[in-house]
Specification:
Structural class: alpha+beta
Radius of gyration: 22 Å
Function: Catalyzes the pyridoxal-phosphate-dependent breakdown of phosphoethanolamine, converting it to ammonia, inorganic phosphate and acetaldehyde.
Number of helices: 7
Helix content: 25-40%
Catalytic activity: phosphoethanolamine + H2O = acetaldehyde + NH4(+) + phosphate
Distance between the termini: 53 Å
Cofactor: pyridoxal 5'-phosphate
Shape: globular
Mean pLDDT: 88
Order of helices and strands: HEEEHHHEHHEH
EC number: 4.2.3.2
Enzyme class: lyase
């Protein structure tokens, strides 16, 4: 088997034994065992090729030689956290800020989307002084507690979980899963009106979004 240490059946057995059940795999009845990737494609243990339309970590493609070389070069020199003074951190912030409006001049670097969303939530609460959040049905925000608490995943799929009065769920603006599908004369306005209605309802209850 190409690139595999165990056969698929053993990998499934070990995953069930050692990985928490809440960390689910895609296609649970017959999961795909991915062993390598290059460019826009991933390959399973039989060598079958899949177009990768789901991973959000390989923006320039898997195994990009420039990224691999840069990562190896840096790890040969230093791999440390951002609390030590280092030129790479400020150089990256400077280059990133140059692509943004002038007022967006401060960077917070985090390790994951969960951390980024948690930080954005705390910044919004601090700035507005309000707790209300509009989220989308079927939305996934991350696996830290603050994000699970505002996620429809919690109160739609988990037993005994109630939706907070500060969380307002908007319909998904999706032509495949949403209610305003292809053929609707003006789906964008329809979804915008749904969100406007949620804000009005929150204000009527004395909340501010």
């Amino acid at each position: 088997m190409e690139g595999a240490i165990f056969d698929k059946k053993k990998t499934i057995g070990l995953r069930k034994k050692h990985i928490g059940p809440s960390c689910k795999v895609f296609f649970s009845l017959d999961p795909i065992k991915i062993v390598r990737a290059k460019g826009q494609y991933m390959y399973d243990d039989t060598g079958k090729r899949y177009l990768d339309c789901i991973n959000n970590v390989a923006h320039v493609g898997h195994s990009h030689p420039m990224v691999v070389a840069a990562g190896a070069k840096q790890m040969e020199l230093l791999n440390t956290n951002s609390r030590f003074l280092h030129d790479n951190l400020v150089q990256y912030a400077q280059r990133l800020q140059a692509t943004l409006p002038e007022k967006l001049s401060v960077c917070y670097f985090v390790n994951s989307g969960s951390e980024a969303n948690d930080l954005a939530l705390r910044l919004a609460w601090q700035y507005t002084g309000h707790k209300d959040i509009i989220t989308l049905e079927n939305a996934y925000h991350g696996h830290v507690s603050s994000l699970i608490n505002i996620s429809p995943y919690k109160f739609h799929q988990l037993a005994n979980a109630e939706q907070s009065k500060y969380v307002h769920v908007a319909l998904s603006p999706d032509i495949y899963r949403g209610i305003y599908r292809q053929g609707h004369p003006d789906p964008a306005t329809a979804y915008a009106d749904d969100v406007k209605h949620l804000i009005q309802k929150a204000h009527e209850k004395g909340h501010k979004v």
